[in-house]
Amino acid sequence: MSDPESHKQEMKKLQARQRAKVAEATDPGRGLVLVHTGNGKGKSSSAFGVIVRALGWKQSVAVVQFIKGTWITGERQFFDRLGGVIWHTMGEGFTWDTQDRDRDIAAAKAAYAKAVELMKSGDFDLVVLDEINIALRYDYLDVADVIAGLEQRHERTSVILTGRDAKPELMEYADLVTEMTEVKHPYQAGIKAQRGVDF
User: Fold this and answer.
1) Domain assignment of residue 176, given as a range
2) pTM for the full predicted model
3) Does the first or last residue of the chain, that is N or C, have fewer Cβ atoms within 10 Å of its Cβ?
4) How many C-beta atoms lie closer than 10 Å to residue 60's C-beta?
5) CATH code of the domain covering residue 142
């Protein structure tokens, strides 16, 4: 363990490096594209945390949910009570529940058409496309079409795309990619999803 003076000097050097990085960074003049993917929990939860941050800055937010359908979640109930978030739940539930590929494709395409409309409008600082990566995973949407839609977004609009198995092309296009890694999950021990923690 270093002595207090050595620690202070180390922190001063670190501070100088950090300030230099901040000084060199530039504003892109456009919204960012963020991808939350991976097998671990927290992809949508992280996106909802960013929504809270945006609302804290009095920014405007929209959400399009691609898979969750009529499933009642705590975050949806919270934002409905809070207000300030335009919310479109356009999926029909988990893919293993619908068991109808044509219906799933139609639902995904309708959801993405709504997403493009929201992204292009100029009305939103943040648009969250929740579980869109699942729609891409099952080829309900074409990744080139999704990227083309992202290209059409208004310059003020940032977009978060969530869901496991994000397409490599989408990750290459994005400004930020975060991969959630599962280390341990209660479901593996036979524990069912818990209200307030899992949904």
Assistant:
1) 30-183
2) 0.89
3) N
4) 17
5) 3.40.50.300
